[in-house]
Amino acid sequence: MSESLYRLLDQSSSSGAGGASPRYRSSPELSSPHQRHQHHLPRRRPSWTFSAFFTPWSSSPRRWWLCLGALLLVIAFVTGVTKLIIYILNPDKEPKSWQYFCTSQDEFPHALADSLPPVNVFVGVFSYDASYERRQLIRSTYGTHTLPRDARTGAPLAHVQLKFILGRPQKQNARKVTLEAETYNDMVVLDMEENMNEGKTYEYFRWASENATVPILQSQDSSHSSAGASLTSKKTVIGWKKADYVVKADDDAFIVLSELERHLRVSPRTNTYWGYLIRDWFMAGECYALSHDLVRYIATSPDVVHYTHGKEDKKVAQWMNMHPNVSSLNWVSERCWIYDGPKTGTAYSHGYLFPDYVDKLKRIAAQEASQDASGAIVGAGGHFPSGSSVHGKVPEPPRSAEWRQKHSASTVSKWQEPYVVPVPGMTIEEEIEALVEGGGRWDGFWTHSAKPHSAAPEEDAAQVRARRYLNRPHGGTVVVHFLKKSEWFLETTLALLGTDALWRF
What we know:
Belongs to the glycosyltransferase 31 family. It is a single-pass type II membrane protein. The chain is α/β, with parallel strands linked by helices. Helix content is 38%, strand content 17%. It has one domain (94-220, 234-504). It is built from 19 helices and 15 strands. Strand 2 (160-168), helix 9 and strand 3 (187-193) form a beta-alpha-beta unit. The chain starts with a helix and ends with a helix.
C-alpha cells in the first residue's frame, strides 16, 4: 500500500475512535433526531391569555410588576367612577337655599286649619334595643310637651299617638326592652332582625296598616236593675280608630307634634305623601307621612314586596311611583319648617326658625322683587308622574353661585364648618338665643360687640313667644333633624319650647 493510502486509513480510524471532524461535529442542541427536526421548524409564539398575564409567579419580575400596576389601575378607575356617580346623585353637595324656600312657598292656611277638626296621626319613631337614653329623651321632651292641647283646659289631646318601632332585640337586651315596653306602653317590636334599609320600613307599614290606631272616647249604654226596675245609663269607654296618617320618623329628629298635626290637617285625606321633598324625587327620611290608604296599598301590593331593600326613604318614593293610580297622588312638600339643627353643619342646617324672621325675609324678598323686574322664577323639572298633584313644591332655580350663597346664608351656621360660640362666657340662655336665626332677643350683640352681656331682655317669655309667632299659637318649626348629640336635642327643646312651657306641665 502506498504511503498516501496508509495516511488516509489512519485518519478514518481516528475519526471512528472519537475524533470528531469539524464538519460533522455534534452540538448539544442536536443531540437527537427529534431535536434536530425541531431546530429546523419555525418557532411559534405562545398565545396571550388573561390568566397567564396575571399569574404572579411569572418567570419575569417585570411581568409581575406589570400585572400589579394593571390591577391598581383597574381599582382606581372603578373607584373613581363610583365616586363620580355618588357625587352626581348626591343632593347635598352645597347648602340649600332655605331662604328662597321660605319666601316662595305659600302661606300656611291658618284660618282653614282652625276651621277643620283635628286629624288622627300615628307617629312611629324608628329606634333599636340599646337606644334607651334617646327614647327617654324623646319621651321627656317633644313626646310630652308638643302634643296638641285642648284650647280650653290645656290638657293634651289623644289624636296624636307616638310609638317607638324596633326590630327583635338582641338576647342581652331582651329583658330590658320587655320591662321598658311594659312600663311605658309605647313600643312596637317587629318580628324581624333590626335594620334600617333591609325591609324595616316595609314591615312597619305592613304592621301599621292594621294596628296604627288612636284612642277615642265612645258613649255606651249600660243597663242595671234598681228596686226591681231596669235602668239604662250611659258611660264613656275608650275605643280605637285607625289613624288618618301614619308617620315614619328618625330618632335624631325633634318633632313639634302639634305643628305636624296642623300641617296634615290641611292636607288631602287620601293619596297623600307629605314631607321634605328632595330633588323632586323623594321625601327625606327624618319625617314623612302617608295617608292610611297609601299605607294599606303598601301592605297589600303584590309588587311592593319585591322592592323592600335599599335606602328606605327612596324606596317609599319608588313604591308611590308603582301605585296603580300614580297620577292621582298628592305630593305635599314642606321645605321651610323642616331643617337640620344649627350645629350640624349639613346642607340643610341653619338657625332655629320662627315666623317673625320668615316674615322679615318675605318683606325683603318682596322689596327686591319690586326693584328687579327680571326676577321671575322658573321651576326645574322633576320626577313626578304626569298629572300628579304637587302641593308646596318650590323647585330651586338654577341661579348663580352668588345668588345661591345669598339665599343659603345663615346668621348661625356655616356650611361644613363646626359651630363656634359668637362670644365667650355666655350663659345657657344667651347660648340658646345665639342659635336662633337672626340673632334672637339680642340681635346685633353677637356680631357687633365683644363685651360681656349683662342686661336681661325686657320681654318676658310669653311676650317673646307672641312676637315670634306673630300673635298666633301655631305656625313655626315642624321638624329639626340630625340632632345626633343629646346636648343638641336639649338645646332644641329650650329654643322651641322655652322653660315656661317645659316647667308648666
